């Protein structure tokens, strides 16, 4: 559970590459997930290079949906793209990238294929010549979850509580999911009891209407978003 750093040059740029531990999500259940999330919040990298296995898109794009909630600049490397092609399947990555405002670049890392194009796109996003994530793009969680997110946003704004470096929407989602690290952060706030009481009411509301715990509801909604993007 650590980061490895390396440097390379491409078209006049010196890249400082930080390889973070492999993870499929940004939850707070494993040291790897916590490490990656903390690094993104505290170090604020210029670009998140999200390496996705093209042969297992549904599972690997889950992390992408969480990065969208973070509203950070993303470039997706569709690695092992040769395996996707060999399987006979097709994926209109250009259309999905256009819809999300996130560049998707096919690569075959073991052969170095697509790497120059990937770095070109990173430079393009960094120089703001390519559109990074569209500010109006967000994961649609459905009527029930969106209502609870809105309630929690209103609650935190009324209490004038903000967490630096974290988007308000993301914080509210994690509160509703019962994220332990976020709960610990809010436990230090003077009005934490009121915040948690409101959160617990919303969690109960979600469970009553959707008949599943909030974390499962958010997870299923993310997979539903992915399935829609892949069709």
Description:
By secondary structure, the protein is α/β, with parallel strands linked by helices. Helix content is 53%, strand content 13%. It has helices at 31-43, 57-70, 81-86, 93-100, 115-126, 143-158, 168-177, 180-186, 192-210, 214-230, and strands at 4-10, 13-19, 48-53, 74-79, 104-106. The model has no long low-confidence stretch (mean pLDDT 91).
Strand content: 5-15%
Rounded to an integer in angstroms, the radius of gyration calculated over CA atoms is: 19 Å
As residue ranges, the low-confidence spans are none
Please give the number of β-strands.
5
For the structure shown, list the relevant keywords.
231 residues; two-stranded antiparallel sheet; 53% helix
Q: Can you describe this structure in just a few lines?
A:
This protein is α/β, with parallel strands linked by helices.
Topology:
Layout: E1 4-10, E2 13-19, H1 31-43, E3 48-53, H2 57-70, E4 74-79, H3 81-86, H4 93-100, E5 104-106, H5 115-126, H6 143-158, H7 168-177, H8 180-186, H9 192-210, H10 214-230
Parallel strand pairs: 3-4, 4-5
Antiparallel strand pairs: 1-2
Helix pairs in contact: 2-10, 6-7, 6-9
